[in-house]
Amino acid sequence: MRRRGVGLGAVKNKHLAQAKFKDKGSEIAADQVNQMSKQLDAFRENLEEFASKHKQDIRKDADFRVQFQEMCASIGVDPLASGKGFWAEMLGVGDFYYELGVQVIEVCLATSHRHGGLMDIDDLKMTLMKSRGKKAQEISSDDITRAVSKLKVLGNGFTILPIGPKVFVQSVPGELSMDHTQVLQLAQETGRVSVATVKEKLDWEHERAHRTLDYMVSEGLSWVDDQDKEGRQFWFPGFFHEASNNS
Fold it and tell me: What is each CA distance from 2 to 5, 7, 8, 76, in whole angstroms?
């Protein structure tokens, strides 16, 4: 017996059914996108209403400002990113982070001879609060982090750098690699390392340790001490405060 082939009508019906399913799927997807868009619009309206009601708290209370920023981020809104537009006029903080960023630059550059371009964010915060005066609005570490992020338009000279449990602001132009970060973590407790220490603790070859430390000296992050009885030491001025607290 010869097997009968599939009829032309059946093929047409199959293709028609597939097209209908595709059209229905596109219709459902478009409807879902439309519903999500309406929800986001409603969220934004509520957010604007909330901001209008609590704008004094957002401007003056650093902790409240952090919570507000996190709430905005959850729906993809960054009200503090620009110095223009509705949010800047509503909250009066559009220029806040740019002004704070300028102050961060001034403090970091003025004190770089002490910390070598690597400043503890808590120390930076205290210095900024003193320079801003008692009547200035309160700032938080989160504010400093956001302000530093605005400085990226100037290049890679200012960066937030987590090292162990601490956070530092790097104010030197060089970009640090994972090797540099590992050395910084190693130096954090005592404020210094040697080539021998780096080789032993990180299990590195001599060339790798020497190259990494030489780069950090060239960038001003580390100072060389050839008078130590244990041999050449590489001191990290950004950690002097930490080392004195641990001693």
Answer: 9, 15, 18, 64
Sheet strands side by side (includes 166-170): 118-120, 166-170, 159-163
Q: What is the C-alpha to C-alpha distance for residues 231 and 80, in angstroms, rounded to an integer?
A: 51
Question: pLDDT tens digit string along 3-48?
Answer: 454 555 665 666 666 666 666 666 666 666 666 666 666 766 777 7
Distance CA 207, CA 134 (A): 51
> How many CB atoms within 10 Å of residue 237?
20
Average pLDDT over all residues of the chain: 78
Q: In the 8-state DSSP scheme, what is residue 246?
A: H
Between CA 180 and CA 223, with CA 125 as vertex, the angle to 5 degrees is 35
State pLDDT tens for residues 169-192. 988 777 788 899 999 999 988 899
Give, for 9, the enclosing helix (H) or strand (E): helix 8-53
**Distant-in-sequence, close-in-space partners of 210: CB < 8 Å, separation ≥ 6:** 195
Whether residue 58 contacts residue 91, with contact meaning beta carbons closer than 8 Å, is answered with: yes
pTM of the model: 0.61
8 A C-beta contact, residue 166 and residue 120:
yes
Two tokens, residue 178: 């994972």
* Eight-class DSSP state of 231: S
The count of residues in the chain is: 247
Tokens of 146: 């956001």
